[in-house]
Amino acid sequence: MFKHNEQQPEGFQASLKEALDNLAFNDAGLVAAIAQQHDSGEVLMMAWMNREAIEETLATGRVCYFSRSRGKLWRKGESSGQVQMLKELRIDCDGDALLVKVDQTGPACHTGRRDCFYWKADASNVTIDKAPIKDPKELYGK
After folding, report:
1. For 122, which DSSP code?
2. Closest CA to 63 of 98, 93, 92, 94
3. pTM above 0.85?
């Protein structure tokens, strides 16, 4: 569907069902989802969504992912309180990645950092360049 319709004019529409039916889910039924702060453009994290997570996110406005480690749906912030509210969900041109524009409460990363991309790489090293903004023990009570 995505490739077939890529030359359609602005305003062209397809049903959500058709779009979800044609997403390029991997063998585990998941698609990569990049979370971005809607107003600043800051890239916060990458996670996975299955069809159910996408449908729930669109229906409720609260971002839901699929946790591979837990093997179930994961509503961002259910244990930390650091929720993501959906502002916009976009599908890339190949239908194999999602951009989830959100309003993030506090840190997005389980380490207590604002985002998950705190390792900066150069030709010889990787360096942590961001400090936690909240102690993970506070977030998760551990």
Report:
1. -
2. 98
3. yes
Q: Tell me the pairing of strands 43-49 and 31-37.
A: antiparallel
Give the contacts of 115 (CB within 8 A, at least 6 positions apart).
42, 43, 44, 45, 108, 109, 130
Q: Locate tokens 């997570």: which residue?
A: 53
What is the residue type of 135? Answer: D
pLDDT string in tens for the chain (142-residue length): 898 999 999 999 999 999 999 999 999 999 999 999 999 999 999 999 999 999 999 999 999 999 999 999 999 888 888 899 999 999 999 999 999 999 999 899 989 999 999 999 999 999 999 999 988 888 777 5
Distance CA 36, CA 87 (A): 10
